[in-house]
Specification:
Helix 1 packs across helix 17 and helix 19 crosses helix 20. It is globular and about 60 Å long. It is built from 23 helices and two strands. Helix content is 74%, strand content 1%. It is mainly α. The chain has a two-stranded antiparallel sheet.
Length: 499
């Protein structure tokens, strides 16, 4: 049978009453988990994995997959409404979405997030259906040298793409890189680095307390510095009619969704990349190539780029998982453990030996994605009511959410105090016009960059030629060089045109 016939068979399996029910439960739980800062998809899937021990493998994976991509939907809600990303892929959504809430356009931001998530997920599922095994094999060509070159390309762009001041952008980027070096050096002798004798820093800085502090606590300080007798939207009542995008707005987000979905899906195919990297790269791409250059002041294009990319990336991670047995993200690594627990061996033969399982899962993704967008759009009126809560009430609520979210990561009060400290530092930086986003982006990317570049040097026995001898790596480095030189080249061209 061809892929279309197999997909129809898979949809038939997914539409059974039992599988349809667990797909809905998984999607609903995923949205809730995603909207709660500090939990995330990894924790949600890990906690619910034991519940699936006695389930049919197909039913079990349908439920867990629903939690995974449902989480990508939910992460945008707290990011847009409260400036607290529910999970790391939603950081860029907060950058573009929360200012819209402050402008009374929170409903449009939520509507955009749901629509972008749906189309990003759908494009990812179609790519998985048609090209999954093929693209997964291509993803294997991205070894440590190629991954290092790709991240280097991203690192050279984030510092000034997300800030008006070049120097301040570089300083913020450098701060994130410095923070990422804290912890044990696991690639050599396991010696501690910059821990200052604290056992709490041996495992490094947790991303969730850092991002909650830099976004959530900073927001509370902004609220405390302003008026306390009005709501986030100055008492304006928002309606569902105002949330629906018009034709012009739908046209504005269509191209960002398409570009970011393709990029996010490709990143999802790369082992170890994950939705966070996909979301960051898509946001950078949209800010560099899109028509709206002021996305940080609030733009539906930024929300669309971030949300479509992280959903496409989440689905893309299933391609290397199923066809190669290689997890593309931390959550898919937990799912890999589940597959092995159920007696299934991921790899090229899984598609031929277990077609009911594989195509039942893929078929359920179409259904689960539809359930997620319907549920997401249905709760927009309820979510918008949060924006009408007076600031004097919502500020303490945000503090409680920040504390619970930070503590729940490692059950450690150290994370709570670190979150508060990170928020205070971020507030000072923000007041002095230092961009916060480059620090967070570089913090995430630098860890992966260090690991990949050191693995590449280990493979080549210390020779830097590996980055040039690998064709993909060489092309990426050439693009990086072109990107770095482009301002000078454009200046020379502009100067020559005047003469």
């Amino acid at each position: 049978m061809n892929n279309f016939d197999l997909l129809l068979h898979g949809l038939n399996t997914a539409l059974s009453l039992n599988n349809l029910l667990v797909a809905g439960i998984g999607a609903f739980l995923g949205i809730i988990v995603g909207a709660m800062p500090g939990i995330g998809a990894v924790t949600g899937v890990s906690l619910l994995l034991p519940m699936t021990f006695k389930m049919n493998p197909t039913t079990a994976i349908i439920m867990l997959a629903g939690i995974y991509y449902g989480n990508m939907y939910g992460g945008s809600y707290s990011a847009i409404l409260l400036n607290i990303p529910g999970d790391s892929p939603a950081v860029m959504t907060a950058m573009a979405g929360y200012p819209l809430s402050r402008q009374g356009k929170g409903g449009k931001a939520l509507f955009t997030a749901n629509i972008a998530s749906f189309f990003g997920g759908t494009i990812g599922i179609i790519a998985l259906t048609v090209f999954g095994p093929v693209i997964a094999n291509f993803g294997l060509k991205f070894g440590p040298a190629e991954i290092a070159s790709l991240i280097f390309l991203a690192l050279t762009s984030i510092g000034w793409l997300l800030g008006e001041d070049f120097l301040k952008g570089i300083i913020a980027t450098s701060l994130g890189i410095l923070l990422s070096t804290i912890g044990m050096d696991l690639l050599s002798d396991g010696s501690p680095r910059f821990t200052f004798g604290s056992i709490n820093l041996l495992s490094g800085i947790s991303f969730i307390p850092l991002v909650i502090g830099m976004f959530g606590i900073t927001q509370v300080m902004d609220l405390m510095a302003g008026k306390n007798d009005d709501s986030l939207t100055d008492g304006r009542r928002l309606t569902i009619r105002e949330s629906i995008l018009n034709k012009k707005e739908l046209k504005r987000i269509s191209l960002p969704i398409l570009k970011s979905s393709i990029l996010g899906n490709f990143v999802g195919f790369l082992p170890g990349a994950g939705g966070t990297t996909g979301s960051f790269l898509a946001y950078i791409l949209e800010k560099k190539t899109g028509k709206n250059k002021n996305m940080d002041q609030g733009a539906i294009e930024g929300v669309a780029a971030s949300e479509s990319a992280n959903n496409a990336s989440a689905v893309g991670a299933f391609a290397p998982l199923l066809s190669l047995g290689i997890p593309g993200s931390a959550t898919s690594a937990v799912l890999l453990g589940g597959l092995m627990m159920w007696g299934l061996q991921p790899g090229p033969l899984l598609f031929s030996e277990q077609p009911d399982f594989v195509w039942g899962l893929i078929g359920s993704m179409y259904i689960g994605n539809l359930i997620c967008v319907i549920a997401g759009l249905a709760i927009i009126p309820f979510l918008m009511s949060i924006l009408r809560i007076p600031r004097g009430i919502i500020a303490p609520m945000i503090v409680v959410i920040c504390i619970v979210g930070s503590y729940s990561v490692n059950n450690s009060m150290f994370d709570v105090w670190f979150m508060i400290g990170a928020g205070a530092v971020a507030y000072i930086l923000k007041k002095n016009n230092y961009p916060i986003a480059p620090a967070l982006l570089s913090f995430v990317l630098a860890t992966r960059f260090e690991r990949s570049i050191r693995q590449a040097f280990s493979i080549s026995r210390g020779s830097a030629l590996i980055f040039i001898q690998k064709p993909i790596s060489a092309v990426l480095l050439a693009l990086t060089l072109l990107f770095l030189c482009s301002p000078l080249l454009l200046k020379l061209v502009h100067k020559g045109s005047k003469q």
